[in-house]
Design brief:
Distance between the termini: 56 Å
Catalytic activity: all-trans-octaprenyl diphosphate + 4-hydroxybenzoate = 4-hydroxy-3-(all-trans-octaprenyl)benzoate + diphosphate
Number of helices: 16
GO biological process, one term: ubiquinone biosynthetic process
CATH class: Mainly Alpha
Protein name: 4-hydroxybenzoate octaprenyltransferase
Family: Belongs to the UbiA prenyltransferase family.
GO molecular function, one term: 4-hydroxybenzoate polyprenyltransferase activity
Structural class: mainly alpha
Number of strands: 0
Order of helices and strands: HHHHHHHHHHHHHHHH
Shape: globular
């Protein structure tokens, strides 16, 4: 019987960062998670769906570019903040032990300077969105900063992350139509419950290390009842997205696409295994497909058949 324990580290030492970037750039690229773009896609894809819904068709290309850059910058800044706050914990966690700060590849001072640069670049994007959206963007900053601290005092850091990660969906509406209808808020809430679900899958990868360190997460909260909780959050997402589609209103093609989303989420639940943390990580990454299906639903919801 193979007793080999899978390596859960999220740093790959022979990837494009190691092979193609100057050595001095590597720690910054990894600090910004440029080598692990899953989080950027999970931030951007629901935002693109919201842009399509808000425009009831293909969004303005310039707005799409601005929001895409914004998703990249804010996710990378959030990752830098996360690694700054968690630098003393990450060395004790299987998945994070090789990250740049905790492994000594970059100093705290340089990481803080890099964070300031990331925020400065993000601030430049404020000139390209309307005043309503600027206020929403500023309201996002505290969520991004406090999220990594939440695991120290609440079992629900995933809820804070879900709110922050999907904030661009709200801004997509305010920047497109200068208002925030109830349907848009329900789509965002559905994305929050979806993220609580898939980020809980991710948290199960670290559950043993988190328990030793006294860190909290929804995975630790749910324990061996994780499947029931995940089912509830995924079901809530589908319900919220269906009601939002009715309120907007979306065309008939939206609803079969949401059914495909439901099937994909059901497959994740069927594949979930508490005893295989490496599988939880793979299921987390599979949510890129969920985001793509949301875009498909938004497109079909804007077409009259």
């Amino acid at each position: 019987m193979n007793q080999t324990t899978p390596d859960l580290s999220d740093i790959y030492h022979n990837d494009w960062v190691a092979n193609y970037l100057p050595k001095s750039w590597g720690p910054y690229a990894r600090l910004a998670r440029l080598d692990r773009p899953v989080g950027t896609w999970l931030t951007l894809l629901p935002c693109i769906a919201a842009l399509i819904q808000a425009d009831h068709g293909m969004p303005n290309w310039w707005r799409l570019i601005v929001f895409s850059i914004g998703a990249l910058l804010m996710r990378s800044a959030g990752s830098t903040i996360n690694d700054i706050w968690d630098r003393d914990f990450d060395k004790h966690v299987e998945r994070t032990r090789f990250r740049p700060l905790t492994s000594g590849q970059i100093s705290l001072k340089k990481a803080v300077i890099f964070l300031i640069v990331q925020f400065a670049l993000s601030a430049l994007l404020l000139f390209f969105i309307n005043p309503y959206s600027r206020w929403l963007a500023l309201a996002l900053v505290p969520l991004v900063i406090i999220y990594p601290l939440c695991k120290r005092f609440t079992y629900w850091p995933q809820a804070v992350l879900g709110a922050a990660f999907n904030w661009g969906m709200l801004m997509a509406w305010t920047d497109t139509i200068n208002s925030l209808p109830l349907g848009a808020v329900l789509m965002w809430l559905g994305a929050v419950t979806w993220q609580i679900g898939y980020d809980t899958l991710y948290a199960y990868t670290d559950i043993q290390d988190d328990a030793k360190l006294g860190l909290r997460s929804t995975a630790r909260k749910f324990g061996d009842k994780g499947l029931y909780w995940l089912s509830g959050f995924y079901a809530a997402s589908i319900i919220l997205w269906l009601v939002a589609g009715i309120l907007m209103p979306m065309e008939i093609g939206y609803y079969p696409a949401i059914a495909l989303v439901a099937i994909h989420l059901y497959w994740q639940l069927k594949s979930f295994d508490l005893n295989k943390p490496e599988k939880s990580h793979a299921l987390f990454k599979a949510n890129i497909h969920t985001g793509l299906l949301l875009i498909l639903a938004a497109i079909l919801g804007c077409i009259q058949f």
